[in-house]
UniProtKB/TrEMBL annotation:
Protein source organism: Rhizopus microsporus
Name of this protein: Co-chaperone Hsc20
Biological process (GO), any one: protein complex oligomerization
Alphabetically ordered keywords of this record: Chaperone, Coiled coil
Domain J, residue spans: 37-118
Family label: Belongs to the HscB family.
One MF annotation (Gene Ontology) recorded for this entry: protein-folding chaperone binding
GO cellular component, one term: mitochondrion
Amino acid sequence: MSQNKTCWQCQATNKPTALFCENKVCNVIQPIPPELNFFHLFEVGNGDTKQEPTFDIDLKALRRRFLLLQQKAHPDSYSNSHKREHEYAQLQSSVINKAYNTLKNPLTRAKYILQQQGQKIEEHDSLENPELLMEVMELREELEEASSKEELEAIKQKNDEKYKETVQKLKDAFDKKDYMHAKELTIELQYWSSIQTAIHDK
């Protein structure tokens, strides 16, 4: 983490992750720190600073924090303020939205944690388990051939079970800090998520 930063308006010293000046008299909006951690932003991480990534998060707490942050940083609230404040509000609002959408979804949350651990998932990454790949292909074929609501519902139930099962395995892998296995499971989750989307669009 970088050193403390100075408020652009009152020159008070602030923590590097401060979104608003910590001088209560000032409390002016600050630029988004480039090293901002999404878990720290929403206070849903582990550790004293709440920055340590954790896959198993409280989604209700995440939502409450999101609404609070968006209320404080909404650009409309700064329409008549200093130009710099309005620009910072727009940037903060954009990052808050991105962070919320990243953390609320198990797949994007897993990818974010892995990226922080140097295990970024690339476009060419695919399932290496042939049996699992065959299972995915068979479910996709069933989906393509489905012609009734009953058939779609049966496929959805199968896929939902696989999705939930993989999410639970991911939680266990992240708890053990087994990031290589977590990466494999995240790639698997991408497939179930893709089928989930295809079912919804059919």
